[in-house]
């Protein structure tokens, strides 16, 4: 096993001048080597701006084995004795063009490669998605897995690499989204208890001469269409140990103890991978059929209520109340709902409970943990849309919320007690973001709770109505502080029907369903 390894994340600007892009790559490789890094990760599409006139042009300008671009990168790996992970558009002899991750070893040999599995927007016009899942590479630095950008906006690719033993995930990005740095990148480390080294672009991500017109069409200030930088190195608990600035070419370095990624336990001893129930996850590997239900209501008033004593008062204004786990008897809660028309959610030892004034009207058996008997998500159709309940430790697993999205849930009630900070700061916001699910998370009084609502502005390449903040999929968050007995908010059930993050890219149906065998 390796001891402490020094890793680097490098960010560059890459335009349509391939020679200039190569020079930038070599500069940051040199800078990483000067800082004694043993491994450096470079951004996605480092060879050419991700913008082409046609599929044929993308193939023509793509790298080839042994060409000048890749030969120069190999020479730098050999000169410095450094491992280099880079992502390029790569041309194959059969005519395909991939968004390809390459890992060079210190002798300059390519020892691993894989193509991007989930393509983003216009990438579908000139690239082909990966035909196979990427490898886990056993190296002197540890077991490494590679992915790129959009693959990290959903959970399946990183999850599959972790399940196959990866200790360090190498993510190359080409993104102007600020929520990459503060949500999508670090959550992949925390939810799998692995290291993540992520390198993003800076500078314009579209041709400079076309940028103003494109920005006008989208209703987005031109400066928001620049790479968002903030390349970073993230520990297995979700802590960002090194981060580059938002702008400018930069290299950040950190010393990491790779062996920390071998401990998958939470404080209670739960192993977050061993306690999964793969037999339940078969729908994730099924061919997508699209959402089958119409959108729910535009808005829904909801509440987190920490005590049954407050149910009657809060139910005068909120139509869905979520209480913590085991928060009083169903009879007590039902009596408090009398005459309100509201529903409440809590849980008991068997799983989630949906209660109205008549008593328990639906149950969601637990899917994970000792004594779990559940076999599937059991959604409930209410007048405002479809509700799913994810109670207790079921909320720890990304797979659970994916299953809820696949049965077209609009809102998910989550009675939950967190054990680690990342579960509330990263995990549950990401479950909302990557599935387009509204979440109402009720925790005990000594923990913060939150309501996560889906945003009406979401799909890229269509005009945004509100001010563009640089965050694409981060939900609207209403926090309920620890110690507050109750809190209210509004969610947007109808927005759960819009899963198109960009043209031809659906957050749910765009999962790499053919390649998720490791999850099963």
Describe the structure in your own words.
Helices cover 21% and strands 28% of the residues. Helix 10 (398-406) packs parallel to helix 11 (421-435). It is globular and about 75 Å long. The model has no long low-confidence stretch (mean pLDDT 96). With 520 residues, it is an alpha/beta fold.
SSE-based structural type:
alpha/beta
Total strands: the figure is 28
Number of helices: 11
Biggest β-sheet, characterized?
6 strands, mixed
* Overall average pLDDT: 96
Top keywords for this entry?
520 residues, alpha/beta, 6-stranded mixed β-sheet, 11 helices, 28 strands, 21% helix, globular
Question: What's the topology here?
Answer:
Layout: E1 4-11, H1 18-34, E2 39-41, H2 55-61, H3 68-80, E3 83-91, E4 97-104, E5 110-115, H4 123-126, E6 136-139, E7 142-148, H5 156-163, E8 168-172, H6 179-192, E9 195-199, E10 202-204, H7 211-218, E11 226-228, E12 232-234, E13 240-243, E14 250-257, E15 300-305, H8 311-314, E16 320-325, H9 330-337, E17 343-348, E18 351-356, E19 359-365, E20 380-382, E21 385-389, H10 398-406, E22 411-415, H11 421-435, E23 438-442, E24 449-453, E25 476-480, E26 486-491, E27 500-502, E28 505-506
Parallel strand pairs: 1-2, 2-3, 7-8, 8-9, 15-16, 16-17, 21-22, 22-23
Antiparallel strand pairs: 1-14, 3-4, 4-5, 6-7, 9-12, 10-11, 12-13, 15-26, 17-18, 18-19, 20-21, 23-24, 24-25, 27-28
Helix pairs in contact: 1-3, 6-11, 10-11
At a glance:
Helices cover 21% and strands 28% of the residues. It has helices spanning 18-34, 55-61, 68-80, 123-126, 156-163, 179-192, 211-218, 311-314, 330-337, 398-406, 421-435; strands at 4-11, 39-41, 83-91, 97-104, 110-115, 136-139, 142-148, 168-172, 195-199, 202-204, 226-228, 232-234, 240-243, 250-257, 300-305, 320-325, 343-348, 351-356, 359-365, 380-382, 385-389, 411-415, 438-442, 449-453, 476-480, 486-491, 500-502, 505-506.
